[in-house]
Specification:
Largest sheet: 4 strands, antiparallel
Order of helices and strands: HEEEEHHHHHHEHHEEHEEHHHE
Strand order of the largest sheet: 1-2-3-4
Oligomer: single chain
Structural class: alpha+beta
CATH topology of the domain at 42-168 and 285-312: Peroxidase, domain 1
Number of helices: 13
Mean pLDDT: 94
Strand content: 5-15%
Bound molecules: protoporphyrin IX containing FE
């Protein structure tokens, strides 16, 4: 008791109360929320503002998915060898008139239009930078999806100085060698690249086939589960919209789109076992995705100058699992590309083959 009292130092900092109990330092903000650093306090209200004004009240919908995609398209223009973009700096928001011209940024205009007024309000209220805004929105949007890991959020990115250069974002028409080369140039291993592609479990396409906007990549687009890693391996039989489009390959399920890039990565010897290992392994997928996202969302930043404000990111709902074969599918439909590892045993949903519905609002 006496030890607890001695070890507890209470001080006032920036209108917040700092409690230093043993090694764990906590700050109670004016709004009653607790965090590790008083500079994070204004972000709690910013998160509430984002949920109301961008994410339709904490939905794992179109805006949440696109906010995650935006973090990638903002950050990946970076090179560990220098000479390319500023990384996770918000340049895609601040210099959107340049970066939206890039072919790979097709479909990004909607989320920029949605985020820009929200960014302007928060910039006036708390001085948030474009980089912090883009990467906070990505973490919050992802947290709205059940099963997702709680992504880290590092606070304090300076304003971006220039747009990223064109031709630094992988395209679905790219081959495995060039995709992995681009990821490697930005500092990611093939395993980390596959980990980042867990994002396609909460993803849909608007512009690959413009006749069918909002066509999901898996049958559970509102849940951050490993279903996409399973469904990309199922034998493809159909195109969901207006025939074959560039970057699209045969899909196994009506209403579902398969990206060529996802498929070739699932089949290539350099990545097939990383892909297959994600199937029905929620723990591996979320752990690896969280680690790779922490790296992506601080590319080009000096993390010594950033404050860890991960406490402000909402805690996502969990996903119980296991995943299942969609109705009418079984092990016989799996295009195994990693025969040296056992494939998980999965049950099949009862009933006729499904048709996947588009994501509303796309
Ligand atoms: C090889 C690398 C990648 C390629 C070729 C690729 C390609 C694409 C394409 C073509 C779309 C559909 C765009 C549209 O038609 O609207 C898409 C959507 C998406 N991508 Fe990727 N992607 C890659 C990696 C990533 C990574 C690393 C992330 C995040 C960490 C990501 C997150 C998303 C999300 C969340 C969506 C859905 C957006 C929405 O539903 O509005 N992608 N991706």
């Amino acid at each position: 008791m006496a030890f607890t009292r001695l070890a507890t130092i209470v001080s006032l900092a920036l209108g917040a109360i700092t409690v230093n109990a043993g090694l764990v330092r906590r700050v109670t903000c004016a709004n009653g929320k607790t965090t590790t650093n008083a500079v994070c306090c204004p972000l709690f209200d910013a998160v509430d503002f984002l949920q109301t004004n961008l994410f339709d009240g904490s939905e794992c919908g179109e805006e949440a998915h696109s906010a995650l995609r935006l973090t990638f398209h903002d950050a990946i223009g970076f090179s560990i060898h220098g000479g390319k973009g500023g990384g996770a700096d918000g340049s895609i928001l601040a210099f959107n008139s340049t970066e939206l011209q890039f072919h790979a940024n097709g479909g990004i205009d909607d989320i920029i239009a949605g985020q820009f007024p929200v960014f302007q309000t928060l910039s006036q209220q708390i001085g948030i930078s474009p980089g912090d805004f883009v990467h906070l929105a990505g973490a919050v949007g992802t947290a709205n999806c059940p099963g997702a890991p709680r992504l880290e959020f590092m606070f304090g990115r300076p304003p971006p100085v220039a747009p990223a250069p064109d031709l630094t974002i992988p395209e679905p028409t790219d081959n495995v060698t060039s995709i992995l080369a681009r990821f490697a140039d930005a500092g990611f291993s093939p395993e980390e690249a596959i980990a980042l592609l867990s994002s396609h479990t909460i993803a849909a396409a608007d512009v690959v086939d413009t006749t069918i906007p909002g066509t999901p990549f898996d049958s559970t687009v509102g849940t951050f589960d490993s279903q996409v890693f399973l469904e990309v391996l199922l034998k493809g039989t159909l195109f969901p919209g207006n025939g074959s489009q560039p970057g699209e390959v045969l899909s196994p399920i009506a209403g579902e789109m398969r990206l060529q890039s996802d498929f070739v990565l699932s089949q290539d010897p350099r990545t097939a076992c990383f892909w297959q290992a994600m199937v029905n392994n929620q723990e591996r997928m979320t752990t690896q995705f969280k680690a790779a996202m922490a790296k992506l969302q601080t590319l080009g930043q000096n993390t010594k100058n950033l404050v860890d404000c991960s406490d402000v990111v909402p805690v996502p709902a969990s996903f119980a699992g296991p995943i299942t074969f969609p109705a009418s599918f079984s092990m016989a439909d799996v295009q195994i590309a990693c025969p040296q590892e056992a494939f998980p045993m999965l049950a099949t949903v009862a009933g006729p083959a499904p048709t996947v519905a588009p994501v509303p609002g796309s």
